[in-house]
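Below is how a single chain appears once it has passed through the pipeline. First comes the sequence as given, then the structure the pipeline wrote out for it. We keep one example in the README because the format questions we get most often are answered faster by looking than by reading.
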Amino acid sequence: MNERFETRCVHGDIDSSPCDENRAISFPIYQTTSFGHLKTGHNESGFDYSRESNPTRQRLEEIVSSLEGAVGTTAFSSGMAAISACFELFSPGDHIICSEDLYGGVIRLHNLISVKNGLQIDYADTTDLSVVLTAIRPETKAIYVETPGNPMMEITDLRACAKIAREHGLLLIVDNTFLSPYFQNPLELGADIVIHSGSKFLSGHNDTIAGFASSKDQVLADKIRLLSKTTGGVLSPFDSWLVMRGIKTLPIRMEQQQKNAQKVAGWLLEQEKVKKVFYPGLKNHPGYDIHAGQTRGAGSMISFSVDCADTALRMLQKVKIVTFAESLGGTESLLTYPVLQTHPDVPAKTREHLGITDTLLRLSVGIENADDIISDLKQALED
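Resulting structure:
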């Protein structure tokens, strides 16, 4: 069978997924550390110890693999745990090129851990292919990309990056958190590994922390799973169940959030105190054509800059329906201040270069009524 995306969100790959013997509609939570053996050797069920594998987590991993078109997915305790495992694929002296428009937590990981472990990290404007090519050197092993970027919504041409990676024998790793597999499938565009912070759109309810690494190659998938077993940062059975439950409504949520975001972005463009709006669904976005050619939608993440820091701080303090908080991708709209919340560990000069200033705000548009979101932002903008 070849079920469509919405059906796979609910059922996974029907032909290959394991069936619960009691035919429970909601897949059971196997809240156990270990599984009993009937004889010596590997357990007949395929499960021994939940750090290594667990039926609930396995079911979730199969669903995410189905949605991303991966041969294998490993579920981690957080998005950062998934990213950390991917960087453990490399050895001291290896060089990785990363998008410069990148979640601040990844930059902190590199500064505190990757460099200490001997990796060489360079940040590049991956929207400019000539810059990517110039950054490649003999010890380069991978290109790591977020598209849309966080928080400036910069767009990288994934097909072109994949071509460069193939020609130079590099891995292409793509963080697909902002769009989810509903709007973008990087593996189909040539990526080798796709990363998700499952805390965001996949779970979708701001109630759990999770991460995923999906691979198109079985050797890579096996290496990442071995790393998860060894380092232990795996997703718990209960959190696996929460994400699985969230994924069932992923298409419905993504459609409504995008519809709301398009309306909010259009409204922001008309506000005198709003100086710039960064949303890949706007035709004036510099990456609009590339984005439209590699995705099925623009998503619901908007960044915008206002006239001064006082306006930004006033908005954060005055919003009522929208919540001043970190994170994104849930049913509730969240307003974030990147300079202090998501990117404080990025050097000030780098932030300034990227446009992450004290006037920049990032909005994750939820499923509330769009007019209510706009009314709330309007009163928050007022003096």
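Residues 250-269 form the longest helix (20 residues).

See the next section for the split statistics.
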